[in-house]
Write a structure and sequence with these properties.
2 domains; five-stranded parallel sheet; alpha/beta; TIM Barrel; 358 residues
């Protein structure tokens, strides 16, 4: 009976220690209250987008003095495979062009090219994409037509490209370089063209995760850690597929809260790149490789990585700090596991000795 009680006590102790080490992951990054850069990326402004919602959204960002990167789809595809210009059919209305021009003049809104027609050009069963797998010369025609159209109509330079469905290939990268587009903002799962001079600022989180992202970014010491919040008009839709005033009001409350935080700076994608810093291929590669690494996948508390740390785009310095502390946490778990095995071995040996005496 005494032996059983000892085993139970030992088990409880090990559970407490392991749980404490898991909690340590969340509290091991300190509380530096460093500056946090937040970018809002609004995708799918195009010929079919809701004009009333766009007006309301832009007014909200302007009133709160928060910059906005707008991913603009310039054309609607006519789906005529026999047409020599099948990538272009209809275009932005004069009303929508005027809306964009009005807010560009405020110098806080950036126009990014969000594909050309935002259509699926990939084959059934392949990755959904407008560009991946398309010949380079066709991609050049598509992207250059969209870029030139927006620049001519709006009188602004297009420096940022947002591929629909975050999908592109090495040919896309080459085309962007030829067109002097300096930044691509997509997902965080591609390693292409190590020789490219493009900047990379991937999406990091959606609206519901903003506060978590700001919290963790504030705790990690290191310059140039950025949060890129991606959202669409459908994020605000409720019943009957109409814009929900409640969701929009909650979003305004979130923006207001963010604007009240002294350590938060709002910028567009192009403003961040213009300010300098390391946003090249190597940083993007290290970021992707870290989150896909074996030791992250098998962390005892890997959901913390996926639910919080992946919501930011850390600088190389910050990433090294995160790696170092995660290594310590992993070492702690291994030590505790070894200690548990030694304790179990000791208890079993005592049990065998007692059985041998009987």
């Amino acid at each position: 009976m005494h032996l059983i009680k000892s085993i139970k006590s030992l088990y409880v102790l090990m559970v407490v220690l392991l749980y404490s080490s898991s909690l340590n992951m969340e509290h091991s990054f300190g509380a530096h209250n460093d500056k946090v850069v937040v970018i809002f990326r609004y995708d799918d402004f195009g010929p079919k987008s809701d004009m009333l919602f766009n007006n309301e959204l832009f007014y909200i960002f302007s009133r709160l003095n928060i910059p906005l990167t707008i991913g603009v789809i310039p054309f609607i595809n006519n789906n005529d495979q026999n047409s020599s210009n099948r990538f272009i059919s209809d275009e932005l209305s004069s009303e929508k062009l005027e809306l964009l021009a009005r807010y560009i003049r405020l110098n806080s809104f950036e126009i990014a090219l969000h594909g050309v027609s935002h259509i699926i050009n990939s084959s059934p069963g392949d990755e959904i994409s407008e560009f991946k797998g398309i010949k380079m010369e066709d991609q050049y025609k598509m992207i250059s037509s969209g870029k030139e159209y927006l620049e001519n109509k709006l009188g602004t330079k297009i420096n940022t490209f947002i591929p629909p469905w975050n999908s592109y290939d090495s040919e896309t990268v080459k085309v962007l370089e030829k067109l002097n587009i300096r930044t691509i903002s997509a997902g965080s799962n591609r390693i292409l063209c190590p020789s490219t001079k493009l900047n990379f600022l991937p999406r990091t989180c959606t609206i519901p995760a903003i506060k978590k992202a700001v919290d963790i970014a504030s705790q990690i010491h290191g310059e140039d850690s950025v949060i890129v919040v991606i959202f669409h008009s459908y994020d605000f839709k409720g019943i009957n597929n109409t814009i929900s005033n409640k969701k929009l009001s909650e979003f305004v409350n979130t923006l207001t809260w963010l604007s009240e935080q002294e350590n938060i700076t709002f910028k567009t994608i192009d403003q961040v790149i213009a300010d300098g810093g390391d946003y090249g291929f190597d940083r993007n590669r290290r970021y992707i490789e870290f989150y896909n690494s074996t030791y992250v996948k098998y962390l005892p508390n890997k959901e913390y990585i996926n639910s919080r740390l992946r919501n930011i785009y850390p600088s190389s310095n910050s990433l090294n700090i995160i790696k170092g502390k995660l290594h310590l946490i992993i070492a702690l778990h291994l030590i505790l596991l070894l200690a548990a095995l030694l304790c179990v071995g000791y208890v079993l040996s005592r049990l065998l000795l007692q059985l041998g005496k009987r």
